[in-house]
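Lecture 7 notes: from sequence to structure.
We start with the chain below.
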Amino acid sequence: MTTPAGFAEIHNLAGEAARYARIFSVEPDETRTFDGHDETELVHAEVDANGRVTDFSLDREWDKTIDPRTLGAAVIEAVNAAITARLTSWADRVAEAEDEPAEARPEPAALEPVTINPSSQTIENLLYLLHRVGQETEPPEPSRRRDRDAYDEEEDDAMPVRRRLTKGKSEGGHVVVGLDGTTVAEVQVETDTIWIGTSNNLEVAGELRSAFAAAYRKADEEAPRRRSDSAVAELAALTADPQEFVAKLFGLDR
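Predicted structure tokens for the same chain:
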């Protein structure tokens, strides 16, 4: 049984929880886009409110300054700059929400006692779910090559494991984009043919847009398979309603 003082403390905590809920409920403006460019300011990228690349543009004479072999790196740099602009905008909106005065919460009419009776089974289930989440999100151990005749064991153990990227190829086949989750991890631009030397800036930008669109389509197709039997998804569903989750976890009389 909680004391009147304890109930008042719970009331104050509820006010703080409401304030944080207001702050973290701030969502990006779905109508906005954000721009970024590389160091040379010759490669420009645009991302939407979800951080997805929606457009590209290259200066008409970009190849006089940028080596075509490094264009992929410049593209990633421009994308990261646009994503930084998006996150900065969201952080500014969160700061504005935090500065807003908290809504006045009326004092409870009566300090009724609250019974806290947590279920051991509920706690055990939650701990097991958190254990699964930890296993699901833990980086995989470095793999070992089976062919020990070709590689020394010490060198083999030191080799890092790279996550499999979700890749999309442009319609013309000249650009490949690799996504690591939602992060743009790789942009490969074909430079071993005459294509890059005979294409203008609009054609190259078009291939970049096409490759990004293909990568995002493939990521969307793979998402349901990745989420099936996912502990992270299960935890997200469990905590979707924070009040209901706390009440269930602590066995509160409501």
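Points to note: Residues 143-151 have pLDDT under 50 and may be disordered. Residues 4-137+164-250 form a domain with the Ybab; Chain: A; fold (CATH 3.30.1310.10).
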